[in-house]
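Lab meeting, item 3. Inverse folding demo.
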């Protein structure tokens, strides 16, 4: 690797920094970890193993993994959001990687890691993002249409609203929001932007208000925001790349533990675990056995119990799937 390239990579990495967590610093809770015990138990942790948490966020899952590792174990945690760095744990067994998890294989190669013992992904948007008015993720605030997980990235939700054709906008709402009225939504946006730029969440909601049915208004609005967020952050493509990278990196017997929050990402996770590909195409051997790099640990998804849902209402839609790498 060229010296300049290595230096550029190292500048994007933060490892073993003694930053306090937000709770230690007296700040707001960044994110309440969902299905904490169930997801970490599902990894079947080997104390001396190498593990990856591709969604560091508030660090709750990472801290639980570290609590189960010996001095010989190591955890690599990914997050592309600079705010997450405030939650870094000071531990010699821990390395933080400020990057999108789609580059999982590249970073593991950089660190000289050929195989891992387990990988955790909590695909939910952190409470911090919903509660930060300036990020534009929430319906509760009139804020700039941003929605970038990585604030250094280029395209924002406002750019999507301004630059996409009516057909492209319709596709985004239909594919990522599963909205039947996607064409009408796209047409209304294109008509409105001819009069003035639509750059805030409040403007967007006002433009689309006449198309909302009162009985499902909040649900449809949430799906519109979900669709824009997925498009801005290329979430589906990143998820597929990460899962295929995990399949290649996991040792035989290594575990993949993934928490999803909507049907689109859950379908991809289920397909990769069952069939080894995001599309769910089943391949069979001569004897009719399904060819897949994984064996399912839980055939039925694990969901939060009533107590957790009461403590953390944002956990209600969570689904946990666990699979083990086959030899």
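The presenter then showed the designed sequence:
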């Amino acid at each position: 690797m060229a010296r300049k390239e290595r230096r550029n990579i190292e500048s994007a990495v933060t490892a073993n920094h003694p930053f306090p967590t937000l709770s230690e610093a007296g700040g707001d809770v960044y994110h309440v970890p969902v299905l904490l015990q169930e997801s970490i138990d599902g990894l079947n942790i080997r104390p001396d193993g190498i593990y990856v948490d591709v969604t560091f966020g508030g660090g709750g899952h990472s801290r639980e993994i570290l609590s189960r590792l010996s001095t010989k174990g190591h955890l690599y945690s990914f997050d592309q959001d600079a705010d997450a760095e405030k939650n870094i744990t000071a531990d010699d067994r821990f390395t933080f990687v400020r990057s999108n998890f789609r580059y999982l294989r590249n970073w593991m190669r950089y660190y000289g890691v050929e195989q891992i013992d387990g990988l955790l992904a909590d695909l939910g948007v952190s409470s911090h993002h919903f509660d930060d008015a300036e990020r534009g993720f929430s319906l509760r605030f009139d804020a700039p249409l941003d929605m970038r997980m990585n604030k250094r990235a280029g395209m924002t939700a406002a750019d999507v609203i301004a630059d996409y054709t009516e057909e492209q906008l319709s596709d985004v709402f239909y594919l990522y929001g599963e909205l039947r009225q996607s064409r009408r939504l796209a047409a209304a946006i294109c008509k409105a932007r001819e009069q003035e730029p639509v750059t805030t969440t409040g403007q967007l909601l006002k433009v689309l208000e006449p198309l909302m049915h009162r009985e499902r208004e909040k649900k449809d609005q949430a799906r519109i925001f979900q669709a824009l967020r997925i498009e801005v952050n290329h979430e589906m493509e990143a998820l597929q790349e990460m899962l295929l990278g995990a399949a290649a990196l996991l040792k035989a017997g290594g575990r993949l533990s993934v928490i999803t929050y909507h049907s689109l990402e859950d379908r991809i996770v289920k397909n990769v675990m069952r069939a080894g590909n995001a599309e769910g195409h089943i391949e069979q051997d001569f004897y009719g056995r399904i060819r897949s790099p994984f064996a399912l640990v839980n055939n039925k998804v694990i969901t939060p119990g009533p107590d957790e849902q009461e403590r953390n209402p944002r956990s209600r839609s969570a689904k946990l799937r666990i699979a083990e790498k086959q030899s």
